[in-house]
Amino acid sequence: MPKLEFTGLRVLVAEDNPHMRKLLFTLLSGLGLRSIAMAEDGIDAYEAFKRQAPDIMLVDWQMPIMNGAELTRLIRNGPEPSCFVPIIAVTAFSEKRHVLAARDCGVTEILCKPVSAKGIYLRIVNCILNQRNFVRTRGFFGPDRRRFQNPHYTGAERRGGKSDDKYDLDPSDEVTQAAPSERKADSVISSMVARTAGADSGSSSSRKGNAE
Amino acid sequence: MTRETPKEPAKERKDYEVVKPPQDLRSKVKILEGKDAARFDPVQAAEAALQRLSGEFDAWMGLEVGTLLDAWAALPEGPLTEEGKTTLFRAAHDIKGQAGTLGYPLAGAVAGNLCYLFEHVSPAADIPRVLVEQHIDAVRAMVAEGAKDADNEVAKALVTRLADVTDDFISRR
């Protein structure tokens, strides 16, 4: 495991629970980070993100007003170059379906609670030393979800697959689709503030599929 | 920014674009080698920092359990409401996420099982109050009794029993 000095790295943490915030701050400080900004919910985090342009974000998945999934989508759909910021989802949702959902929102790494010094360190190191390319399709923008090549994959989201799944690029390979950054972030935030955030509960899956 | 394009026959419309992030984060860090690497171990330093903070963990755990108990006490009589379920879920989920780090892994397991019940039974009114109460009582007792050891036989038996009852309830629906 390589040893890295993080003193030049700026990190933003979005976490609503005060004890968890203190835990994360302590662990990150211990790892050698000197620029650590903390936000108490998704809205706070998004404002801090726009002001501070952090190098890496740690985002709690369950937060009031704007949760981690909503915050991640907002950032990924935002303007370049900040939309490329590595996002580490910190979550107690460790079931496989939750992990896949977080990945499909565009997170870079997933850190399941309970957190540990080694767990955080390895994910930050991975974001830095194994920086992944981003992929943009009609329905996704985020880090390349392929960690390895699987020639037998036949899922619906295979690139170069269905003709109705085309993300139109012109022959010169310039993007012709309206830039995602045109999405009105302010109106998205306003609608989130207006509603009461609910817990992520509902769909069912058997405990056999539980990765806990 | 470098944009890589997939290698496909000319004029064929692509359904994806690969973009290399503009910033190389390696420029923001220093890879420690030799004496520097021997002098500083970031993981050990972070664990030591956490250890210095650990004197506060019991109090924090007490506060988290207090939040769960308050949410339970504030529930109206009768079947569980969606609002009540959401409030309890948030409190239990916070405990599930923190208890391991704070030194109460078995209390975290019980809270996790309560989250599992909430996630897999809908509507909220179908969730037996007595089963929710048993979970909350178990978390409260484990923290009050200082059941930190993951090998605590009584606590382990309680975790297993609650998981079995929950699974049985969900499977019979």
Automatic annotation (TrEMBL), chain A:
Name the UniProt record assigns to this protein: Response regulator
Database matches in PROSITE patterns: RESPONSE_REGULATORY
InterPro entries (UniProt xref): CheY-like_superfamily, Sig_transdc_resp-reg_receiver
Polar residues bias locations: 201-212
Organism expressing this protein natively: Stappia albiluteola
Gene Ontology biological process: phosphorelay signal transduction system
4-aspartylphosphate PTM sites in chain numbering: 60
Keyword presence, Phosphoprotein: yes
Residues in Response regulatory domain copies: 10-128
Chain segments annotated as coiled-coil in the UniProt record: none
Alphabetized PANTHER family for the sequence: HYBRID SIGNAL TRANSDUCTION HISTIDINE KINASE J
Ranges of compositional bias, category Basic and acidic residues: 155-169
Stored Pfam families: Response_reg (PF00072)
SUPFAM superfamilies assigned to the protein according to its UniProt record, in alphabetical order: CheY-like
Region entry Disordered, spans: 146-212
Keyword list, A-Z: Phosphoprotein, Two-component regulatory system
UniProtKB/TrEMBL annotation, chain B:
Keywords: Two-component regulatory system
HPt domain ranges (all copies): 81-141
Gene Ontology MF: a single term: protein kinase activity
Keyword Hydrolase assigned: no
Gene Ontology biological process terms in this record: phosphorelay signal transduction system
Top-level taxonomic group: Bacteria
InterPro entries xrefs: HPT_dom_sf, Sig_transdc_His_kin_Hpt_dom
Protein known as: Hpt domain-containing protein
Taxonomic classification: Bacteria, Pseudomonadati, Pseudomonadota, Alphaproteobacteria, Hyphomicrobiales
